[in-house]
Amino acid sequence: MKHDLFTISRIACMACIVGMFASSAAAQVDFDREIRPILENRCVECHGEKKQKGDLRLDTKSHASKGGENGAVIVAGKSVESALFKRVASANKDEVMPPNGEPLSAAQIVLIKRWIDSGAVWPESAADQAASVDKRLQHWAWQPIRRPANGRCVDDFITAKLAETHLTLSAPADARTLVRRMYFDVTGLPPTPEQLESAIHDPQSEIEKLLASRRFGEKWARHWLDVVRFAESDGFEMNRARANAWPYRDYVIAAFNDDKPYDQFIREQLAGDAFNADAATGFLVGGGKDRVGSNDPVLTTNQRADELHDMVSTTAATFLGITLNCARCHDHKFDPIPTKDYYGFVGMLQGVQHGERLWRMSVEAPEKVEEKQSWPAVVAGRNDDNFPPTNARFVRFTITACSSGEPCIDELEVFNTDGENVARGAKVTVSGTFANGTNANHQAKFLNDGQYGNARSWISERKGGGTAQLEFANTEQIDHVSWSRDRSEGGPKYKDRLATGYHIDVSDDGKSWRTVSSDKRRANSAPKGPQVYAGTFQMPGPTRRNHRGDPMQPREEVTPAVLSMIGKPMALPGNEPEQKRRLALANWIASADNPLTARVIVNRLWHYHFGTGLVDTPSDYGINGSRPTHPELLDFLASELITHGWSLKHVHRLILNSKTYQQSSAFNEVAARVDSNTRLLWRFPPRRLDAEAVRDAMLAVSGKLDLTMGGPGFDLFERNDNYVKVYVTKAECGPAEFRRMVYQSKPRTMLDDFLGAFDCPDAGQPQPKRTSSTTPLQALNLLNSNFSLQQSTFLAERLKQEAGGDVTRQIERAFALMFQRKPTAEELRGALALVKQHGLPALCRALYNTNEFIRLN
């Protein structure tokens, strides 16, 4: 047999180790003198503070004891079970550590073995203790919100920072400019000449009118929908439309208009089914859904893992401004977020599935609505039967009809009024079992084992019926039974053998029975009533950490939890009911004690008012994100939000009424040399209008804007029903497409030819801030697109109707509608010449294409 030199040397080394160990087993090992130098010289380069291969650090005791991505590497007293010893002593050159340079000597390997076998004593030095403190926890964003004592309004903080660089605020904007700015900024629409005339004498009082306008919610909902990646199609290959996704958009608009407290806004989007706000949970399933199914378990499992990843990462980024998604495969490289935290979050949301459910639009309490509406038809996945609390020691599930063959149930759960599944551990009795119980996958004992799926289920012995009974150790007060045919992760794989007729009975003594629920409370076919694409919920199975993010490599079980190192940690039992998980997560996020939540949302408001946030990475407050330009102002606004009942309109008022917001946007060369990006706000930062505001404004001035609110949206694409949806922009738009852009049935990853040129996001990913480019295509669209040509004609007709046949009056009316001012003498001469040569619609096209029309100054 041939051996390479490495193998021969390792064999000799191991022989030497055996001899050395035998002769010196009793000798004590001095860690600081004998072990620490080995770790520092040969291990820390790859497993230290700067680099952690395999998520392992060996530079301090606290880190080494945690182990790496494969678990513990040091098992005190057991070197043969310690990965550290096995890797340094390996005879396999592809596994031996360290991988570079000479392997450890036989004497060094013996020292490590003896050290581990003698208890792996690691005295902590001062350097150890200092290194074990996670410096990342000192990051500003993780610290509690503290209201600063040196400022009472927005301007105090802005002027103080400007003074540090010898700058000051600019002069106030003129009234016309300010009113136009406020209208676009707050409502997304230009003021009419009449509105301008009314507001110009008292712009301050106009702020309250604008905040009370129903247009306010339409404007600010569009910002929120960007952040949460909302669209009304699935994306991916098929990209089919979601006919009932629009209620979430309407929910957001109404929430902003009604100034719903932001903490409640959070709770409803994560657990709206607990607050009779069903449309709100459209947030959770607002992302893409791959509808291309497969019998391949690897593809199906990965699709489900990606869906949960979208929900987890969007929730964390939206409300907390953290990149939790980076911890899917390994501990976060920059922020104090271990992989376990990612999967704890997954456990909180693991019961959420994409899909539609009954939309309870009534304002009555949920239980009253439920009495008036039938429940959805039974499904192969989770079915829930709720009933008034009742005492019982026995629960019997009797099947009277089945979709095919012998009925099958994979899990039968009974919950008490504390939300505990009391079926676990109960005595199981069944009428009989398929094949006399000889099939290992189908046993009565699987009915309450806490595991889902066809492979651990009970099948009745007879076609069309059967009985399963649970007996508890003690009488329990119960109010809820859940059962399923195949509750596999990612959705049912088997839908045959489904119980379609059943009744649930309870008893105190096993003799006298009373019915608490049955299929009679359910619809016999499709669920009755309006549907909303806001997700469905079912009790999930155990959550496991996936090795390197691969769902085909599950590791240890992880309990539902929140962040362990940021804010106040919280973990739940592994059997916590599904809805209670989402409620707990929502309450943790919406707490005034959470250091991130209020800071993140007030910064978003600032971002959309000024074009850039105080933190210019609005969905990343981590160590790799930007630091706030005005940290005291950020905390001031956050504390104002909390102490004023989480009112977002209160924060809007603070900003809109400030001198900082109301100053001129005029350029100042001296100030620009100090602060070229206007981050210190020595002037109001001018910017181009968003794509939707450009289109809405064009419709508004042409007189064709339809202000109908709510309901299903309009489509900017030609209708087709292809298996893979094809999106072709409509050549012509009519009144049906003249509503505000927030009501477009927005498809994912597709943009129409007009809006696409103006940096409109495609909802393929969350977009907390938009790019703002300047391209020739934008000018060409405004000048030559079918939409621009059409609206120019409509505007010309309006001008003739309102100004009569006098061309000068027509031009003056055009300037009043579009710019809220009169034309200068030079502008009037040029406009008259253009109209004379090319007609009034040509002038309208030219005015649509001006910077003044599409920019906010």
Ordered list of secondary-structure elements with their pairings:
Blueprint: H1 5-24, H2 31-42, H3 61-66, H4 83-88, H5 106-117, H6 126-132, H7 154-164, H8 175-187, H9 193-199, H10 203-212, H11 214-227, H12 246-257, H13 262-271, H14 297-320, H15 339-349, E1 352-353, E2 356-358, H16 366-372, E3 383-402, E4 408-409, E5 411-416, E6 427-430, E7 458-459, E8 466-484, E9 499-507, E10 513-518, E11 531-533, E12 536-537, E13 543-546, E14 554-558, H17 578-589, H18 597-610, H19 631-643, H20 648-656, H21 659-662, H22 669-674, E15 687-688, H23 691-702, H24 776-784, H25 786-803, H26 807-819, H27 825-838, H28 840-848, H29 851-854, E16 855-856
Antiparallel strand pairs: 1-12, 2-11, 3-8, 3-9, 4-7, 5-8, 6-8, 9-10, 13-14, 15-16
Mind explaining what this structure looks like?
The protein is of the alpha+beta class and 857 residues long. It folds into 5 domains: 5-133, no CATH class; 135-171 and 596-683, no CATH class; 246-296 and 304-356 and 557-589, no CATH class; 374-528, no CATH class; 687-856, no CATH class. The protein contains 29 helices and 16 strands. Strands 3, 5, 6, 8, 9 and 10 form a 6-stranded antiparallel beta sheet that branches. The chain has a two-stranded antiparallel sheet with strand order 1-12. Strand 9 and strand 10 form a beta hairpin. Helix 18 (597-610) packs across helix 20 and helix 26 (807-819) packs across helix 27. The longest helix has 24 residues, at 297-320. It is globular, with a radius of gyration of 33 Å. The model is unreliable at 21-26 and 362-373 (pLDDT under 50). Residues 509-556 are annotated as: Disordered. One of its GO terms (molecular function) is metal ion binding. This is PSD1 domain-containing protein.
